[in-house]
Amino acid sequence: MTSCVEDEKSPFINDYEETIDVKLPGGKIFYIGSEVELRGSGFTSGDKIYVKNTNDISQRVIEARVQSYYDTRLFFIMPADIGDTAYEVEVTLSRYGETYDLGTLSVSQYSIYNTGSASEYEYSDLITINGEAQYNNKVYYQEMAYDENTGDYVTVGSKKEAQIVREDESGLEAVAFPLGEQYTVTYEHNGELAASVLLHSNNYMFFNENASVGDQVGLEWQGFETDDEIVLTQGVEIIATATDTYVSHTGAYFTVPQVDAGSYEIRVLREGILSRVIGQLYVY
If residue 169 lies in a helix (H) or strand (E), which one and from where to where? Predict the structure, then answer.
């Protein structure tokens, strides 16, 4: 939101000799989901705001969602439908069946990337989103895993909400706990789908455990899911599935199954898809 306004258009006189004087905010760059403040007079519940991406070949006109209005101010949300090619949008006011061209606003796109591990959260990825993000933010991530049967990457597991640890005018940071090597991130700002991207994980989680058959082993990590199965493998062959597996918000706990003494890789079986190696268990 900004208090700086510029009168890009002269006041309009409608058919009823009423003056329509609405000003766009000036000197600011907006993003999908940004709240935009219009100033003027006589705003009503019947006012509608439309925007058009000047870079869109189709020149599609999109109705924006009016967030709130007062007699002298109206707030609308920059809609996701302007697309990821928008760098300038034309804004139009519709009132009592008449339309008024208010001028243009500058628009930028969010950038999303993985900046490594969050220091306070072991075996995590820190997702950084650059752009205005002071409030009303949601960040989600969805695992992608390689399916040996199809030879493709497929979505696996549940869509999870990342924990936001910073949000301000310059952007936000959120913590994710991906199991696989890649995952999709979707970012919602003020209820609008603002950006989506495929990221590669920096989570190099690896556990080294030693135990006997029947011992309980704990893997402390926040990214396990309730239906995950812990399996012991040699190569890509599953030798045994761990018994009495219990998953909580702090980790996964299981009993070492009946296997021969030796070394085994620890993997997760999630929705039938075998994860990468997340550790080594030596059974003595």
Answer: none
